[in-house]
Amino acid sequence: MAPRLVYDDDCGFCKWFVSNLLRFGDFEPVGFSELSADQKARLPDEYENCMHLLTDTDVYSCGEAVEQSIARLSTPTWWLVALAREIPGYPAFREWLYRWAADRRSIWGRYRSREVVRGAE
């Protein structure tokens, strides 16, 4: 089964970002409003604060969800993830960068936004 990308389906920028991941990766997109009870039970309590990647066995959230998604793309981006993982302090920086970007989604949405997730229409 394809990993599930869980995202804020009220956010145009989030839909744009997930659409781009779907162009190059095999994921099942699931908006917050579409989550099943079982899926919600696997997520952190404050799951609406960031995106998540659900695999059969693991749950990745926020920056780690983005990292894990990029590592699964059918492009040579895996080497960027491998390189980043070698940098001291990378996990903390990854989460800081995710939060910085996520807190500015309304700004990014002015430039990149979608009404629906491509591949989920």
Widest sheet, order of strands: 2-1-3-4
| Tally of individual helices | 6
Helix content: 40-55%
Strand residue percentage: 5-15%
Euclidean distance between termini CA atoms: 19 Å
Query: What oligomeric state do the depicted chains represent?
Result: single chain
- Let me know the largest β-sheet: 4 strands, mixed
Return the average pLDDT rounded to an integer: 92
Rg result: 14 Å
Given as residue ranges, the uncertain stretches (5+ residues, pLDDT < 50) are none
H-E string? EHEHEEHHHH
Supply the key terms.
four-stranded mixed sheet, 4 strands, 44% helix, alpha+beta, 121 residues
Written overview of the protein:
The chain is α+β, with helices and mostly antiparallel strands and 121 residues long. The protein is 44% helix and 12% strand. It has helices at residues 12-24, 37-42, 63-71, 78-85, 90-102, 105-108; strands at residues 4-7, 28-31, 52-54, 59-61. The chain has a four-stranded mixed β-sheet. The mean pLDDT is 92.
Provide a short characterization of the protein structure.
This protein has 121 residues and is α+β, with helices and mostly antiparallel strands. The protein contains six helices and four strands.
Set out the fold topology.
Elements: E1 4-7, H1 12-24, E2 28-31, H2 37-42, E3 52-54, E4 59-61, H3 63-71, H4 78-85, H5 90-102, H6 105-108
Parallel strand pairs: 1-2
Antiparallel strand pairs: 1-3, 3-4
Helix pairs in contact: 3-4, 3-5
